[in-house]
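Provenance

Sequences were taken from public entries as deposited. Structures were produced by running a predictor on each sequence independently, with no templates supplied. The record for Nicotinamide/nicotinic acid mononucleotide adenylyltransferase 2 from Mugilogobius chulae is shown for reference.
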Amino acid sequence: MTESAKTHVILLSCGSFNPITKGHIHMFEKAREFLHQSGRYIVIGGIISPVHDSYGKPGLVSSRHRLTMCQLAVQSSDWIRVDPWECYQDTWQTTCSVLEHHRDLMKRVTGCILSNINSSSSPVIGQLSQPQTQTTPIYHNHDNMNHKPTAIKLWGKISENLGKICCVRPHIDHFTFVDENANLGTAIRYEEIVKLRILLLCGSDLLESFSIPGLWKDSDMEVIVGDFGIVVVPRDGADTERIMNHSPVLRKYKDNIIVVKDAGSHPMSVVSSTKSRLALQHGDGHVVDYLYQPVIDYILQSQLYIKASG
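Predicted structure for Nicotinamide/nicotinic acid mononucleotide adenylyltransferase 2:
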């Protein structure tokens, strides 16, 4: 399959990121690698969307801090960006509404019709073949953008044009996002894209939460799994097959769920924000294994998580 014929994917991860860890970034990297090796997908970008302050989780620090820490964690990445739209809304947003926002936004900015995961012309994403050996990697780390393959250049073009129509909110002047009320003008079309999808990227803990009665609206689950699709990176030896069979909605849309193989055996699969906060509170030197150094420096400078807060 030629690169232009493959489905282009944007991975979107929602969560507290309280704080963002090496495990979060590892999740993006493992998912991208697995999708590329399937031979059917090209991941052109990743989006981190921290939750709104009104989510009400105990110990959740201000979005001002969480956005800054996320930006520090991805500052060397050429394909993952932080989006503050969710934090800047008047109140907490559901995961479903965040996915729909980014779907509509990408449609308006790129002029592309984003594929429904269930369209007849689309491959069944949950039934990927075994990873195929590639002699030439899809991505190269060149400093010159002109030397980068199509997928990286494409994400750069999208990000550049998002920046041209965005507005900057006070107190986080290095963050930009697209205002839904902005005048977008003529939609930009990218001839490299044949099909574009936004997939929710998550760990197996979020997948398991779908089985908790009353936690998710059935209508939201139908949209998230049925219309968009999920890429799951298992954590700490989780049995994703058992989790999916335990939920009627997950069973119904099992073919729309991609489980990244062998990710649960990686050391980063056990890293969590909770472990990171505890390490900070106890002065545990292992915190350097969980968090990037710029994030640690910011936490210490801002005196975050030092006192136990739940």
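The radius of gyration is 19 Å.
The longest helix spans residues 22-37.
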